[in-house]
Amino acid sequence: MSRQLSVTGFFKKPSSGGLERGEKRGSDVLEDNEEGGPAVTAVLSAAPGAKATSSGKEVRREYRVQWEREFTWLRAEGGKMFCDICRRAKANNGFVKGCTTIQKSALNDHKSSHSHIESCAVVNQSVQMEKHVEKSQVACNEALKTQLKVVLHMANTSTPSHQYPKLIHLLQSAGCPNLNTAHTYTHHDTIYQMEEAIAATITSAIDDRIASSRYVGVIVDETTNITVEKMLITYLSLQQNGEPETVFMGNYAIPSGTAECIAAKIKDVLSGRGVAMSRVVGLGSDGANVMVGRKNGVAQQLRQNDCPYLVNIHCGAHRTALAARDASKAVREIDAYVTTVNNTYTYYKNSPIRTHRLKELQKEMDEHDLLSLKQPSATRWLSLERAVKGMRANWVALVLELEEEEAARDCPVAKGLRRQLQKSTFPALTHLLTDVLSVVNRMNLTFQKEDVNISSIQPVVNMTLASLDDLISEPGVAERKFNEASQDGRFCGITLTQPDAQAFSKLRSQYLAEITKSVKKRFPEEHLGIIADLDTVLNASRYPTADSALKTHGLEALERVCDQYGSPRGAAAPLVENDRMQRDFLPMKRVLAGSGNPSFRGSCRLLITSLGEMFPDFRALAEVALVIPVSSVAAERGFSLQNKIKTATRSRLSEAKAQHLMSIASAAESIDTFDYKQASALFKSMRPRRKV
Asked: Looking at the record, which segments are called Disordered (predicted)?
């Protein structure tokens, strides 16, 4: 018999259900459902270990997803509730450790708790600080980009670094929105690091292009800078999808100008940029003996030890200049003419009073197209032509001014110069040289172009020789004008002395014969060798139209190409497979002929981009042919750039700084398209910076 526990229990009727309907226990309310049975309406959580009521029914407390819409900081993980805000603020409360009371009342209690309110304040301050930092970082990045633009512009225009603060101040005064005192740099070390970052960005892009070119050509030349240091400038010729390109590698100080020293430096530079020597197939130089010597020249040393397939090219522009110089030295009268032109230039250059009188006389004569006097230079390719043109334009005024100088001051120098200028051979030679040098310098300018290739050499030489033959047959334009204006021993109203038409005719024939001989000597057909053979094999514009002639075209040249590139050279593997190349030669010619007989460069582009898989050996030949440097003009331009950067007033520039400036100026990057993002990242990584 059960024991009575209370008076209330004695009077209450026993019930098998445990609780009467409508009676409460805690927060659980039992009511009748539609069928009359009990139902649980306060279901809150699905926590493990559901509690049982005294009636034996389980009340499961389930997590409700809709709570997250009301409490945006709420997260449920592993049967517990967490607060993202308190977590972020690193508070110490139950919603950081995980709340197991899965009830909405618990959420309301936490929302109004002091800990949660403090956490909200902390997080809000943190968010505001992050926005402020982000805004400041954006302003700092924009300021750095603007400063990098200034440094890039200064390098492109050879502006000294000490002008940087003035340019920044100018931009600030003009209201540049990205520059303020807090975000700008002025220290010279920082400017150097900006230059270094820009140069490194450019060099990285160049290295990527070098890596994608299977073969490369090297262009080198040596000179002396303003501080009397022996320098070796190096360029690389490469190709990108059939488009040739020349890139600057560096300008390096070398202890001596010997072939051994130059060859060692070339190897060191290329290995430092990840270029294997076996990829080098061409060397362009000025033709100096140290470069092209047959026994111990740079080309021979590289070919014997590291670059078995290297082809050495003597710069076409240098050859042309040497041909003109050889012809002038061979004819005594031409050499004397150059001396007279040089003396006349010096006579007026050293006296501003004489120069002023000459200009005033030219104005009185209504000479509208005035040309100043120029000095012939042995080191400048086109200087003699400019000097001759200046002499031709100023000859009348010079003679009259020298006569006045002689009469007024009895100047013996003026008297001697006037006598030389007034000889009949002098104006006649001036007009002859105008015609001849325009022909020779046209060839020189062709070889100085960026897009010149091996197919240009022989046609340009043949054109020049044909033009010289025309001058031998009949006078040129300038000479005809002189002959028409020269009558009765007078030219332009001035009496000429010592007229001798027969002597000048002999001199004319001698000079034209010498210049023709010099051009042929400097550009012998047999010395073009593999260059001419590659042009014959690859240049579809030279293919015959008849199929019968097409079959036999270039067979001998192909044999020589096979000997050059299809035979093993020491440990180096051949570049092409001879049998396959000979088998594919006729199909390749027919495909190129069917493509419209493109030019040499167009043929190479097709073989590299479209026909490479069909004709792999000819693709290799095209890649080789495009990177063989025809001239060393790039190196000459590099020395001009060096002398523009390292001047007498900037003679203390270090080799590294000069290298950076030359790298930037050679690339000629536009300030609108340069990759400032990479340069900024490199600049920031160089050292910890307070402003970035």
From this structure: 1-36
pTM for this one? 0.78
The one-character DSSP state at 99 is B
The residues, any chain, with a CB within 8 Å of residue 315's CB and separated by 6 or more, are 284, 285, 286, 287, 447, 630, 631, 632, 633
Report how far apart, in Å, the C-alpha atoms of 399 and of each of 344, 427, 493, 542, 580 are. Answer: 11, 11, 11, 53, 71
Q: Cα dihedral angle (323, 329, 333, 338), rounded to 10 degrees?
A: 80
pLDDT digits (tens, 9 = 90+) for 143-156: 899 999 999 999 99
Q: Which of 186, 185, 192, 270 is nearest to 235 (CA)?
A: 270
- Phi, psi at 691, each rounded to 5°: -90, -10
Task: Report the relative pairing of strands 311-314 and 280-285 from DSSP bridges.
Answer: parallel
What angle do the packed helices 616-627 and 530-538 form, to 10 degrees? 130
Residue in the structure block whose two tokens are 């002929």 = 593
Structure-token pair, residue 447: 């070889």
Q: What is the pLDDT of residue 179?
A: 83
Q: Dump pLDDT digits (tens) for 648-674.
A: 999 999 999 999 999 999 999 999 999
Nearest to 212 by CA among 239, 184, 232, 250: 239
CA distance 382 to 386: 7
Which of 67-71, 446-450, 534-538, 584-588 is predicted least confidently?
A: 446-450
Tokens of 45: 């959580």
Q: What is the DSSP letter of 76?
A: E
Cβ burial of 177 (10 Å; 0-12, 13-18, 19+) is: exposed
Q: How many CB atoms lie within 10 A of CB 272?
A: 10
The sign of the torsion formed by the CA atoms of 66, 71, 75, 76 equals negative
Residue-wise pLDDT tens digits, 199-252: 999 999 999 999 999 999 999 999 889 999 999 999 999 999 999 999 999 999
What tokens does 128 get? Answer: 């505001």
Buried b (16+ CB within 10 A) or exposed e, 131-151: eeeeeeeebbbebbebbbbbb
Instruction: Render pLDDT for 428-479 as a digit per residue (tens, 0 to 9).
Output: 999 999 999 999 999 988 888 877 888 888 888 999 999 999 999 999 999 9
pLDDT at 61: 67
Tokens of 304: 């014997």
Per-residue b/e over 433-446, b at no fewer than 16 CB within 10 Å?
A: bbbbbbbbbebbeb
Three-state SS annotation for 278-336: HHEEEEEECCCHHHHCCCCCHHHHHHHHCCCCCEEEECHHHHHHHHHHHHHHHCHHHHH
DSSP annotation string for 515-571:
HHHHHHHHS-HHHHTHHHHHHHHH-GGGS-SSHHHHHHTTHHHHHHHHHHHSS-BTT
- What stretch of H or E contains 243? strand 243-253
Nearest of 629, 655, 689 to residue 247 by alpha carbon: 629
Q: For residue 187, give both structure tokens.
A: 């220290």
State percent of the chain over pLDDT 70: 89
Name the one residue in this structure whose structure tokens are 């530079």.
269
Residue-wise pLDDT tens digits, 1-35: 444 444 444 444 444 444 343 333 333 333 333 33
